[in-house]
């Protein structure tokens, strides 16, 4: 590990980290969870038919995209389907709930009927297009749909709810913003390069990696706020306080970068490609294709602990309070680690020959996993699979 002289004062780093710790505790509000209690499976829903893109929830219902192009609203406690909407094409994004009115969902698809849609709306386009949809959370009916110009027939799109806009990022480097009320395009930007990692959203900013370059944009108007050439293609990001950018690459390097000056003030080296970089109250959590989970100090990049799993970590870990929940590609085991020391406090299985496909969703006393065998619901309250969900 190579540690370089910090561009920031020690006091600045401490204040910045304390501020973020407070925000994480306040927003997640899950520090009282006792993961030492037995974690047991409650139900299995939509067996072998769940897309691995992710789900959305309002803390009462869960909105689940299926492989057949349908979006379902389900009460996971009672295993009751509320509605099912046929979207007419392959779903290519996780659903996103509108933060403002909490009554609509946004989702992207590749439509099988783009030519028909274009004719009906007097829009000239090609069949190789993707659609953004606004859907009523209550009924599943479409409020509006809009063609995502420049995205083509994308394999996967990333959506982000930002004030009055829904932001769409394509892996081919095309970024656009739409009005959440009517679907009208607000701005668009093409990077003319393919993204090398998942985009990173932070409040009013978007950070992307293209080739050997990191670029941060304003979500308000797509103006470039920060741009830096780097020595290798990034695979993961974390922007802290709009001041420090942490990024990792395929060679196992993790850097801490002063966004203002562009100077690197520490580097940490591990044995494989960096898959995720997550801020926690105890430090910076790193996961890697070398099968390890690491925790390093935010101010100096000093290793605090590491824990080896049986395979690569390709699914984003769930961090809540003083715990992190992590899975690997090798088996169906889920580990709950204490962030203070990396020691396991609990372990359970997703059922035999099963693997997690996306980060678990924490809903008060329940955990929702998207797996290769379907949607699984677990209880972390000692086997009590009763409804403790809150309506919002």
Summarize the structure.
The protein is mainly β and 392 residues long. The chain has helices spanning 10-28, 114-120; strands spanning 2-3, 40-45, 56-57, 62-65, 70-75, 80-86, 89-91, 96-97, 104-111, 130-136, 142-147, 157-162, 165-170, 174-179, 185-190, 200-202, 205-210, 213-218, 224-229, 234-240, 244-249, 253-258, 264-269, 274-280, 283-288, 292-296, 303-308, 318-320, 323-327, 333-338, 344-349, 361-363, 366-371, 374-379. A 5-stranded antiparallel β-sheet has the order 1-23-22-21-20. Strands 7, 8, 9, 10 and 11 form a 5-stranded antiparallel β-sheet that branches. Strands 2-34-33-32 form a 4-stranded antiparallel β-sheet, with no helix packed on it.
- Determine the N-to-C terminus distance: 46 Å
Number of strands: 34
Main sheet: strand order: 1-23-22-21-20
Uncertain ranges: 1-10, 20-31, 120-126, 388-392
- Overall helicity: under 10%
What share of the residues does DSSP label as strand, in percent? over 45%
Shape: globular
Radius of gyration: 21 Å
Report on this model:
The model is unreliable at 1-10, 20-31, 120-126 and 388-392 (pLDDT under 50). It is globular and about 50 Å long. The protein has a 5-stranded antiparallel β-sheet. The chain contains 2 helices and 34 strands. With 392 residues, the protein is mainly beta.
Strand and helix layout:
Layout: E1 2-3, H1 10-28, E2 40-45, E3 56-57, E4 62-65, E5 70-75, E6 80-86, E7 89-91, E8 96-97, E9 104-111, H2 114-120, E10 130-136, E11 142-147, E12 157-162, E13 165-170, E14 174-179, E15 185-190, E16 200-202, E17 205-210, E18 213-218, E19 224-229, E20 234-240, E21 244-249, E22 253-258, E23 264-269, E24 274-280, E25 283-288, E26 292-296, E27 303-308, E28 318-320, E29 323-327, E30 333-338, E31 344-349, E32 361-363, E33 366-371, E34 374-379
Antiparallel strand pairs: 1-23, 2-34, 3-4, 4-5, 5-6, 7-9, 8-9, 9-10, 10-11, 12-13, 13-14, 14-15, 16-17, 17-18, 18-19, 20-21, 21-22, 22-23, 24-25, 25-26, 26-27, 28-29, 29-30, 30-31, 32-33, 33-34
């Amino acid at each position: 590990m190579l540690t370089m002289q910090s561009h920031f004062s020690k006091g600045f780093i401490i204040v910045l980290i304390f501020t973020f710790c407070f925000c994480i505790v306040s927003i997640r509000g899950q520090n009282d969870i006792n993961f030492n209690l037995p974690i047991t499976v409650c139900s299995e829903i939509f067996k072998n038919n769940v897309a691995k893109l992710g789900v959305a929830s309002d803390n009462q219902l869960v909105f689940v995209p299926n492989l057949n192009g349908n979006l379902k609203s389900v009460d996971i406690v009672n295993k009751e389907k509320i509605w099912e909407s046929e979207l007419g094409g392959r779903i290519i994004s996780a659903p996103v709930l509108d933060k403002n009115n909490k009554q609509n969902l946004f989702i992207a698809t590749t439509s099988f009927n783009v030519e028909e849609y274009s004719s009906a709306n007097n829009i000239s386009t090609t069949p190789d297009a993707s659609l953004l949809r606004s859907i009523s959370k209550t009924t599943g009916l479409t409020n509006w749909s809009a063609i995502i110009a420049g995205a083509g027939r994308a394999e996967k799109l990333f959506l982000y709810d930002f004030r009055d806009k829904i932001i769409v990022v394509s892996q081919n480097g095309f970024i656009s913003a739409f009005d959440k009320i009517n679907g009208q395009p607000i701005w668009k930007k093409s990077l003319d390069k393919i993204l090398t990692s998942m985009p990173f959203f932070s409040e009013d900013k978007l950070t992307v990696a293209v080739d050997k370059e990191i670029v941060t944009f304003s979500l308000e108007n797509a103006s470039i706020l920060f741009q830096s050439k780097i020595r290798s293609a990034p695979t993961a990001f974390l922007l802290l306080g709009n001041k420090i950018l942490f990024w990792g690459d395929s060679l196992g390097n993790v850097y801490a970068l002063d966004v203002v000056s562009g100077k690197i003030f520490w580097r940490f080296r591990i044995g494989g490609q960096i898959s995720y970089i997550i801020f926690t109250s105890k430090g910076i959590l790193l996961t890697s294709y070398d099968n390890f989970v690491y925790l390093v100090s935010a101010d100096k990049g000093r290793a605090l602990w590491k824990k080896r799993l049986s395979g690569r970590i390709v699914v984003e870990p769930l961090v809540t309070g003083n715990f992190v929940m992590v899975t690997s590609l090798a088996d169906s085991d889920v580990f709950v680690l204490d962030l203070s020391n990396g020691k396991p406090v609990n372990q359970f299985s997703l059922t035999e020959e099963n693997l997690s496909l996306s980060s678990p969703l924490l809903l008060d006393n329940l955990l929702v996993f998207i797996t290769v065998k379907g949607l699984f619901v677990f209880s972390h309250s000692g086997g009590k699979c009763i409804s403790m969900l809150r309506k919002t």
